[in-house]
Design goal:
Length: about 180
């Protein structure tokens, strides 16, 4: 009975999360279009129409941010870093070590930063600065923010990354696995 209810609850949460993401995406695209006069086709290639000439200018595609690691984040966000170190997920890597799961892809997606993403965690040797759940796991890669810390668009992207990428549910859905697994 409990497992059946848990599955229904999980399905409801995932469905709501998916629908909320779709609605928010459409809302923010319309809001951005109204503010900037930008036409944002579904392909993601934004074009700007000049009100005077009717000419269409193509925007340059956004540069892809890369993961930089918590040591870079704490240089400017010291209070947040201190708070982060007190939280359970800052010890996520140690749990993998204790269980001998540091090479398990199913575990790495939640216990390491950016696993499976461009410039994200690949191994202890290649990317030791991303070995546990840290700032960028929730806020997204930080190289652009590091380079331009006061850029409003980059800051907005990092704040919205959690919602836009459904970050919370990607790891918290695994909490069920932890409770039923043979760890």
């Amino acid at each position: 009975m409990f497992k059946k209810n848990w599955v229904y609850l999980l399905a409801a949460v995932l469905t709501c999360s998916f629908l909320a993401t779709l609605c928010a995406q459409e809302y923010f695209e319309e809001e951005d279009q109204a503010e900037t006069g930008t036409i944002a086709p579904k392909s993601g290639q934004a074009e700007k129409v000049s009100a005077q000439t009717g000419a269409v200018k193509k925007k340059k595609p956004k540069e892809q941010a890369k993961y930089v690691g918590v040591e870079e984040c704490k240089k400017c966000h010291e209070k947040e870093y201190i708070d982060f170190k007190k939280r359970k997920f800052s010890k996520a890597w140690k749990i993998l070590e204790m269980r001998g799961e540091v090479d398990n892809p199913k575990c790495l997606k939640c216990h390491a930063t950016g696993y499976g993403q461009p410039s994200g965690f690949t191994s202890e040797d290649a990317t030791p600065h991303l070995m546990y759940k840290q700032c960028e796991a929730c806020h997204g890669p930080g190289s652009l923010h590091k380079r331009k810390p006061f850029d409003k668009e980059i800051r907005k992207d990092m704040r919205n990354y959690i919602r836009d990428k459904d970050v919370c549910i990607k790891c918290h859905v695994c909490m069920f696995t932890h409770k039923t697994g043979s760890f």
